[in-house]
Amino acid sequence: MKNAEKTRNAGAGGFSLIEVLVSVALLSVVSLGVAQLFAVATKANASSKGQTSTALLAVQKMEQLKALTWGFDQTGAALGLPASDTSTDLSAAEPTGGGSGLNPSPGDSLTADRNGYVDYLDDHGVWIGNGMAAAATARFVRRWSITPLPTNPNNTLVFQVRVMTAQHARLIEAAGNNAPAGRFGEETWLVSVKTRKAQ
After folding, report:
1. Please, how many CA atoms are within 13 Å of residue 83, restricted to the half-sphere of its CB?
2. Closest by alpha carbon to 121, among 100, 151, 143?
3. What is the rounded CA–CA span in Å between residue 31 and residue 27?
């Protein structure tokens, strides 16, 4: 009886080295899978944050464009004649005079920095400059175009706003005519129209 007890106790003494190694290997494989999931989630979260930022900045500029006067004069000697804002500068921190307003933009204003049709923003979407070259601290480049609608050029304008990271903007400019036609990365591209209406 004592021999049977000794045999039973010897078999229940613990794990063998092979069992421990197998357990550690399984735990390592599971841990690597979880770590990869965290890396993918972190990257997706950062991309979503960038996409949300560009969308908000694009909507902001589109609303500024839509707010400019584009209608018919309702008072004075010019009653009934077209009234258009052709002097507001939307590339400044706050809309000011001395700009191009709703004048048609250069044909490449969505793929290159053009005065009056571009501004630069930092990580928080705060305006930091305009002009032909982005500031070193610029995180986002916001470009827009204003084009008369071909079928009704006197009364309808097409607005396009394109917001992208400064890094993508440099890649697009470097590519020139070979730049991709669509949007890519953390980029938002909005299109809208505005038609003259009596106010």
Report:
1. 15
2. 143
3. 6
C-alpha dihedral (62, 67, 68, 74), degrees to nearest 10: 150
Give mean pLDDT, residues 7-22: 71
Query: At 61, is the pLDDT very low, low, confident or very high (cuts 50, 70, 90)?
Result: very high
CA–CA gap between residue 143 and residue 61 (Å, rounded) = 9
| Contact present, 120 and 130 (Cβ < 8 Å) | yes
Token pair in block for residue 164: 């992208």
How does 124-148 read in b/e, with b if 16+ C-beta sit within 10 Å?
eeeebbbeeebeeebbbbbbbbbbe
**Six token digits for residue 73:** 């004069």
The predicted model gives 86-101 an average pLDDT of 91
In the block, residue with structure tokens 């000011």: 96
Indicate the pLDDT class of residue 134, thresholds 50, 70 and 90: confident
118-121 vs 127-130, strand pairing mode: antiparallel
Q: How far apart are CA 33 and CA 27, in angstroms?
A: 10
| Under 8 Å between Cβ of 91 and 100 | no
pTM, full prediction: 0.73
CA distances (Å), 155 to each of 66, 146, 193, in order? 14, 13, 10
CA 164, CA 161: separation in Å to the nearest integer?
10
Q: Which helix (H) or strand (E) holds 63?
A: helix 17-67
